[in-house]
């Protein structure tokens, strides 16, 4: 990752929450600890943040604390070909008239393009998904209420009796911070609280996760593997991960990204 992009992510992170640790920034930028420490020192000298023991803090601390994890604008540029292929497979599961839940995320966002030809009832907590489908499709759109988290472009409600409880779906589609033997992992407790409510409103849980997510880890478990009905990933999935899903009796759908890219390259 280029230095300018790392600095943008670091400055965004310190604006999101009071103190960000070196380890959190390493995870956000996929950089080494030494690189992050150099970046923090450089930004400290430039008076763009304040270096503290083990991390950094904003010079003007935020009044409103955001969510853990990379910003939407950064995530949407990562593994984009895989995300598009996975999203296409996800929409192939949808029929006109289906009631579905789409959780906010950069992989689930890619569902909006193939969904443009469908007529589904879509409940989402994602501003970008709702806006795109409203403008470019004939799907019925229901948007959850709550607080808007700008960096993740997501709406989360702290209340138990919100509109979520009034919507029932055949399937819920969601991404993942990571996937492992213990289940589906997420980065922030508030996200987990909101997503668990949504999962409870759907018969089937369909997880959209590119193959890199099988090596990613988080300290927070959203739900066990047993709750997942289907996982859609790309053809880079490790054999060990495929075996793990088979043992958990999870339906695996593989989107062939490598072949598609090769075909595009040969025709170009």
UniProtKB/TrEMBL annotation:
HTH deoR-type domain: residues covered: 3-58
The species this protein was found in: Roseibium marinum
Pfam families the UniProt entry points to: DeoRC, HTH_DeoR
SMART domains: DeoRC (SM01134), HTH_DEOR (SM00420)
Keyword DNA-binding recorded: yes
Lineage of producing organism: Bacteria, Pseudomonadati, Pseudomonadota, Alphaproteobacteria, Hyphomicrobiales
Protein name: DeoR family transcriptional regulator
GO molecular function: DNA binding; DNA-binding transcription factor activity
PANTHER family hit by this protein: HTH-TYPE TRANSCRIPTIONAL REGULATOR SRLR-RELATED, HTH-TYPE TRANSCRIPTIONAL REGULATOR ULAR
Keywords: DNA-binding, Transcription, Transcription regulation
The keyword Repeat belongs to this UniProt entry's keyword annotation: no
Entry's transmembrane regions: none
InterPro entries noted in UniProt: Carb_Metab_HTH_regulators, DeoR-like_C, DeoR_HTH, NagB/RpiA_transferase-like, Tscrpt_reg_HTH_DeoR_CS, WH-like_DNA-bd_sf, WH_DNA-bd_sf
